[in-house]
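Re: the request from the purification team.
They wanted to know what the chain is likely to look like in 3D before they choose a buffer screen. I agreed to run a prediction and write the result into the notebook, where they can find it.
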Amino acid sequence: MQTRRFLLAGGAALFSGGFALNAAARPRHAAAKHAKDSAATPAEGAQAGGVADSPAMTLVGPLDTVARWACILDYGSGATLLEKNADERMTPSSLTKMMTAYVTFGMLRAGRLKLDQALPVSERAWRMQGSKMFVPLGESVAVQDLIQGMVIQSGNDACIVLAEGIAGSEDQFVALMNDTAGKLGLSNSHFMNATGWPDANHYMSARDVAYLALRLIHDFPEYYHFFSEKEFFFNKIRQENRNSLVVKGLADGLKTGHTEAGGYGLCASSQRDGRRVIVALNGLPSSAARGNEGERLMGWALANFETAQIISKGDVVDQAPVWMGVAQTVPLLAGQDLKLLLPHGWRNSTHIALDYNAPLLAPVRQGQEVGQLTVSLPGGRQAAIPVVAGQAVPALGLVGRAARRLHL
């Protein structure tokens, strides 16, 4: 007999069972396929002043933003809080350097590169145009200085030195970037260089940018501090972080970007009261608009949601009847933590229900999964956690079974 018991009215907007490197956080392949043919030229029609009129979509309704592309993720759950053209291919500009950093950090973690290791500066790196950290021709620069030059000053020359030092050539390094993108599930990303230099076949989506930031923070916490440094000195030149949110102390990373094709872009992360969010924006009309919009949307994401521990692993959620067991009931326990990311005011908008087949047939093993708790969310969304038996219940012997049938 199927039993369904409603346990709680009032709940949440999003579910997280711990840190979610899951489908909620990963770039959506179905959406990516839908967007595939929409951007053969990634930023067509998206010059620095070009802004789409449609608002961003959020869990609490539409929200206007001057960004052409936007995606905001909750770090703890991986849930998307805001999206606008989030799976559309775009010119990522220097946001590309986040992938260059990810590959570099992977080499450091693997022991194939060291922070104090000096890499030679080629003429190609020295001549590289765009933003520069001014590496000296014919000399060698420490990996740590190159990382700072890349993520703080956005030095294209630093990227080339790293790429050539790690892989032998920028082309071979780009192959590592694309291989890494595939492993991370960045289905709307393809790299042609290590810097973000404009190329029709070089693109990312806003969701890919945000998810890459999430993975940088999660996978390489020992190197994330580079993104939060407000300035550094190289060759007696003071170089300030181009991310205005970092300079103001409103974010602890990650990166900015700008080209004529992509407009002004920003990826930033910050935390408040134990919650971290990641904001990825691109296609803004000016540096000032980038900073203002990044600050506004970061504040919105941090202020309008809260994380609540609804049920903890091991909490008793019911007493289930047992058929032909030495005990007539068994406690049912939550099999894992149930955390809900709530837009403020949504606490009474959801229901939590318990489903299991009752009565349970003895023998019952301790820890045996017997059902699930289902969270019904606004808009038809659902999430579930397993329910397990809290103790073992052996089956009755022949005498016991006979007595039970006679109700003795």
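For the purification team: Residues 8-41, 43-51 have pLDDT under 50 and may be disordered.
Please add any questions underneath this entry.
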